[in-house]
Structures
1.
Amino acid sequence: MMELRPIRSKREHQAALKESEALWGAPEGSHEADRLEVLTLLIEAYEHEHFPIADPDPIDFLQHVMEARELARSVTKP
């Protein structure tokens, strides 16, 4: 069981992921569930800093959603 503190390295990140996976089915309200919640916050903070995901271009995103839903552009005349 790792000490709960900020994650500062890849090794600590991997250990936190492994422990969170082991705690995944913990009963709600249990000590293990509380530990999982804190670990999740620490993992999220580390990943936000080290693996940032840029926001998608809004037009590209809209086109992707339209294609995925098989929607077409339509032009309506007033």
2.
Amino acid sequence: TYTLSCTGPGGNIDRSVNVNVEQSPPSVSLDAAPLDVAFGASTQLTWTSTAATSCAAFGDWSGSKSASGSETISNLQQDSTFRLVCSGPGGTGSNIVAVTVQSAPAPTISLSADPSSVAADGSTTLSWSTTNATSCTAAGGWSGTRGASGSEVVGPLSSDTSFSLICDGPGGESSQTVLVTVDSDAPSVTISASPSNVSFGGRTQITWSSEGAKTHV
């Protein structure tokens, strides 16, 4: 308020004028580093504000925030938008930043058979490992749900057999197949003991048979 008082032969007079000062609205600065991240990676948000008494987060983060600070956003799996709104005596101000998330990689599968060639009625050990997979299913010569890694004995095998593993993940589906061949000309042997459990000093009878064998050891 400004007042002016004037005096003259005719007396005194006062006049006043009021000037209203408006508060500036808050200014908000919001940044993300990095702005382009790999699937499942993190980014760090950093912000500052002026003339603000309170701030709140919106979009892909939430909650009350201080007038300035930083925060790590982890495990990003899709493009994300972060908005910060700050309030003060002069009103509100806001800022927004967008982070691009790269597509998830497809699952990778390593599947092997040891041995890869067996005699008739023989068995083999399948071994596998995966990356970026959330579930796996066996197909072909085996079936059912499998873990992301493991090993399993399969057999007896009477003919060439393909074993497939199909895995799903955020980045899609992948599959791997291994072929186990059966050598029909190789000897096959069966052997058994009766009884299979005996007392000390006891006896058991061993019975065996073979096909395609020339000698026995």
